[in-house]
Amino acid sequence: MSQVSKIFRRFVPQLLHMIVLPVFFFAFMLIYRPLNSVEFMGNEWFGVHLTISSCIILLSAIILRLLYYYLPMKMNYSLYISWCLGEIIFMSFFVALYIWLVRHKPMPYFEAFASSFQYVSLTLVIPYIILALSLRLYDYHNKVDDEAAGASQRMRFYDDRHNLKIVLTPESILYITAEENYVNIFYTDNGKVRSYVLRSSMKALDELCQDHGLVRCHRSFYVNPVHIKVLRKDKEGIVYAELDAKDMMHIPVTKRYYDRLSEML
Fold first, then answer.
1. Which helix (H) or strand (E) holds 252?
2. Alpha-carbon distance values, 107 to 42, 102, 110, 119 (Å)
3. Dmax of the chain from CA atoms?
4. Residue 203 burial (CB count, 10 A)
5. What does the pLDDT read at residue 218?
6. Contact of 239 with 249, CB cutoff 8 Å
7. For the domain bounded by 155-263, which CATH number is listed?
8. φ, ψ (nearest 5 deg) of residue 84
9. Other C-beta atoms within 10 Å of 157: how many?
10. I want to staple 92 with a disulfide (CB 3.0 to 4.6 A). Which of 40, 54, 117, 152 is the partner?
């Protein structure tokens, strides 16, 4: 199954989940009072218990959504649905624990948990679906707009927190090199060579570079074949790529990548 869109990993969608989930739960339960929710939470103190339960959901959403945002993991749609289900279970667990302890329910805890899961899941499935569809629709419209404007040919560089940092045309990029926990992107802008330091890894840029014609020439370098003037071997037998930009360093080319790169020139 395909990977979830990058928009799902940005901070604003996480903030929306933190706000929308508890607010929707509070409003829905207060207005409709589904099934036996009043009996479960207590008729006399229903509003108080509902408010505290909504605060528990708010705190749970903050913890889990920040965890989702900061964890460097790839996730397809099946895993994302599982993550959302896990959030609902987590919230239900603590809502049930609160109701069970405060009301001294004469029932086993796991029976209280089953009721809590029923109310939380049936209520929150609505905002989860609405938020997911809204993000997909927003992402789709962005892609359509990009294609219409010719931006689909541009390279969008995101940092390790999935935040968009710089957009460049492939032909403007000279080479990309790794520097510890960062990569340095060298590109031309109005005839001048500029660089941009991005907190990311070479591995994270593999697919982006390959899709836009950049070629791996070294463990720590991606080079744009369009800007290679010549491949030259020094006295020690080490191959370097000389670029057409003025005063640029020569890019090392290892034997592993030499044949492929030379065929492209």
1. strand 251-253
2. 14, 13, 8, 17
3. 89
4. 8
5. 93
6. no
7. 2.40.50.1020
8. -60, -40
9. 21
10. 117
Q: How far apart are CA 173 and CA 224, in angstroms?
A: 7
- Note the pLDDT of residue 128: 97
* Averaged confidence pLDDT in the chain: 89
Listed in order, strand segments (DSSP E) in 94-172 are 155-158, 164-168
Tokens of 26: 């509070």
How far apart CA 5 and CA 7 sit, in angstroms, is 5
- pLDDT digit string, tens, across residues 221-230: 999 999 998 9
In the chain, domain spans: 6-148, 155-263
- Beta carbons of 179 and 221 less than 8 angstroms apart: no
Of the candidates 220, 155, 217, the one whose C-alpha atom is nearest the C-alpha of residue 184 is: 220
Q: What tens digit of pLDDT does each residue of 47-90 get?
A: 999 999 999 999 999 999 999 999 877 788 899 999 999 999 99
Per-residue model confidence (pLDDT) at position 164: 92
Among 195, 191, 197, 167, smallest CA distance to 179 is for 197
Residues 1, 77 contacting (CB under 8 angstroms): yes
Supply 49's token pair: 């218990």
Contact of 195 with 177, CB cutoff 8 Å: no
Cβ neighbours for 258, distance < 8 A, ≥ 6 positions apart: 217, 231, 239
